[in-house]
Design brief:
Blueprint: H1 3-38, H2 47-82, H3 89-118, H4 125-162
Helix pairs in contact: 1-2, 2-3, 3-4
């Protein structure tokens, strides 16, 4: 597979992830929060329920923003792949930024979910903790990837020096 096809494949994956993220922000968060706030039978929200709903929704939307920024970084990386510059320090920098941003976002996400759980606002806390673990795994993979890309750059520089 050449670099152009690989770049297109990765871009399609990024678009699919972005669409899934938008669906989560637009449909899942409001649905799950409304179930937690008012239950299965819809009723008119009291002032405290309204505050609870909008506080959680705003929080989840805010912690979703870094995930979309990471997708933008991934898109930039695919441009490097397309130009056959995947093994460059610019790519390593973008991968490290992505992992750092994701780790910070996970910490904020966990703190917010623990607070919502303590306030008994969140009936779907287990789902959100699973999402946090998945995010932690992805951040770890990004750190490993940045390490291996750095090693590949060093090897590339060594072999170019030998030739």
């Amino acid at each position: 597979m050449n670099t152009v096809k690989l770049s297109i494949l990765v871009k399609c994956s990024i678009v699919a992830l972005g669409l899934c993220g938008i669906c989560i922000c637009v449909f899942w968060y409001p649905f799950s929060i409304s179930l937690s706030t008012m239950g299965v039978v819809p009723t008119k929200l009291s002032l405290s329920q309204n505050i609870e709903f909008w506080t959680q929704l705003t929080f989840y939307w805010a912690v979703s923003i870094p995930c979309f920024i990471i997708l933008i970084f991934a898109w930039k990386i695919t441009e490097s792949i397309k130009k056959d510059e995947a093994f460059s320090y610019g790519v390593v920098n973008l991968i490290k930024k992505s992992s750092t941003l994701l780790l910070i976002d996970i910490v904020i996400f966990l703190i917010g979910n623990i607070a919502f759980l303590a306030l008994r606002w969140n009936a779907f806390a287990l789902c959100y903790f699973i999402i946090a673990v998945i995010g932690l795994v992805v951040a770890s993979i990004l750190l490993v990837l940045s390490h291996f890309v750095t090693k590949a750059i060093e090897l590339k520089e060594e072999t170019e020096g030998l030739i």
